Amino acid sequence: MKNIRKVVFIMTDTQRKDMVGCYGHPQMKTPYIDALAEEGIRFDRAYSAQPVCQPARAALFTGLYPHSTGGWTNSMGIGQDVQHIGQRLTDHGIHTAYVGKWHLDGGDYFGMGRCPDGWDAQYWYDMRTYLEELTPEERIASRDPNTIHTVGVEKSFTYGYRCTNRAIDFLEKHHAEDFFLVVSYDEPHDPYLAPEAYSEAYKEYRVPVTPAHLDNLEHKPQHQKVWAGLKKGEVKRSQERIDEATNYGKGIGHQLLFGCNTFVDEEIGRVVEAIEQYAPDALIIYTSDHGVFFGEHGLCAKGPAMYDEITNIPLIMKCKGWEQKGIVDSHPVSHIDLAPTIFDFMGVPIPKMFVGQSLKEQIRTGKRVKDHICMEFGRYEVDHDGFGGIQIVRAIFDGRYKLVINLLTSDELYDLQDDPYEVNNLIENTKYEAIRNKLHNALLEEMNRTRDPFRGYYWEDRPWRTDSAEPTWSYTGFTRQKENEEYEPRQLDYTTGLEMKEAVRSK
Predict the structure, then answer these.
(1) CATH superfamily of domain region 6-206+250-377
(2) Measured distance CA(99)–CA(80) in Å, rounded
């Protein structure tokens, strides 16, 4: 494949995979996203690095796991020594622009309204920038779902519409250059603002009840039971779960969510139309940051769980120059792989700091390039006491089996081939001991390889791991220094003061 020097990265917020029609859900009206899949490649097993807004973005736009960025929870900005891909690509002579929700500056939900170095300030448009265009009354209206039914919502009032306009302006004026353009929508995240006709189209729609809704959490981690509102020792049986799920699926919030989902699809369509007009040879990448629970496992929103409802996100790529169309890729891939993939396609050297793997060869040949993908969780938001507080989680998935280590509670193992709704926790099942331990070993190695600051003997010393090594204070005994020579001097060896030769070595 030739280098592709024009890339448009389109992202939504809180869009489940089953909210996109082409993923086998025709009741969801997303014709423009579906068209991308028909003309490109659809990844069925793409996963968020962490199912929370800011950490998910940290992984996407730095090429690092959230644990290495400093931004492993909402409202906690990435570190000063962490370079985002806009800065890295700019330094290689590529024009980069970021339009839309950023969420990486350590500010509140809306951001600080300041363009980070590396992105074109003329097109910077985070959510604070949008709010500062509005009167106080309009700001309040923009955060209230009732606005849809009271004064009404015009397309031009929405954040998504204004993001699209800026993206189109960039394509019109800069299509002749090498560029990397991000279009990051807040939609379909609440407050679900879109003209009322969109939500009216889903007035009769009900969220389907699945086996996941019937999960009584009897053999699940304690923090999930607390999240689900269960009292100590309480178990809700199937009929109670069915009633809860059915009522949850009738909520007006779902009607508004799905309406906004179709609205943002149309906005994506406007961007794609501009791409076809001004930069038809550009690579288009579309994804979402994470999903949201619709009552599955008794849970709501998103948080410290690794169930597919919130981690398995849509991912589609399209490029006019690719010969094959309508490809479905079922190999496990991660958001952490997108930064090296973008650099690889653009012909830019892939930094040592990136921990993912380029998917270019997998896209070219259809052959799997990764044995597994990893996910994590730390905290929902540093500002809030709620949402379960700190819940340190690490997970690994090989395409069939998913192992989840919940450091503060108990662990999980699922066979997604036989149990796609992840109801039956196999962590104590000796039949799966070899599979479980192999995944566990791989997860420990990934934590060490990526300099996870939370790594240590306690991840290995789990109750079900009877052959674990005796815990030691020195753990592996290695030091793992950082290699970021594009932006920092090579780190020095503590014992000699000289430049390190091997970044990973005995301490």
Answers:
(1) Alkaline Phosphatase, subunit A (3.40.720.10)
(2) 22
